[in-house]
Amino acid sequence: MLKIYILDTCSNCNGKAYLPMGEAEDCQGKMYIRHIPCPYCEGSGNEPKWIELEDFAKLLQQAVCSHDHTSFQGNMHFSAGDVWDDIQEVCDDCGANLDQPALGDYIKDEN
Ligand SMILES: [Zn+2]
Ligand SMILES: [Zn+2]
Q1: Mean pLDDT of residues grouped by 10 in the chain (111 residues)?
Q2: Per the domain annotation, does 56 fall within a domain?
Q3: How far is ligand 2, taken at its centre, from the CA of residue 69, in Å?
Q4: Which partner for 40 in 4, 11, 12, 80 could form a disulfide, CB atoms 3.0-4.6 Å apart?
């Protein structure tokens, strides 16, 4: 069986690299959510992985695909007065998730 060693998105933090670590108070007495680097990938968001040649071919396809045809998958959720969604844009041609959160989106000022 031919396998290839790649760096994939960390499955522990989902590629976010930083994880929320509960609330803390800043110097002005405001509460904010602390984030720590993911212990699994040490804040890189990547996870080394052995994959099948077949899966590697898929990744190659995603890398060269221009993602011309996309659809949205996921739902809105309502819980305890909160609304969020897990709607993601996915390429119909290669199956790539075009909505992976970038680090810059994730770490933001709470104000
Ligand atoms: Zn991680
Ligand atoms: Zn695509």
Answers
A1: 87 92 90 92 92 88 91 86 85 86 50 55
A2: yes
A3: 7
A4: 12
Write out the residues surrounding ion ligand 1, Cβ under 5 A.
10, 12-13, 38, 40-41
| 12: containing domain | 3-106
The answer for residues whose C-beta is within 8 angstroms of residue 60's C-beta and 6 or more apart is none
Is residue 111 one of the residues assigned to a domain? no
Q: Among all ligands shown, which has an atom nearest to the Cα of 89?
A: 2
Domain count, the chain: 1
pTM: 0.49
DSSP tag of 93? T
Cα(33) to centroid(ligand 2), Å: 35
Task: Quote the CA–CA distance of 3 and 45 in Å, as a whole number.
Answer: 22
**pLDDT value at position 45?**
93
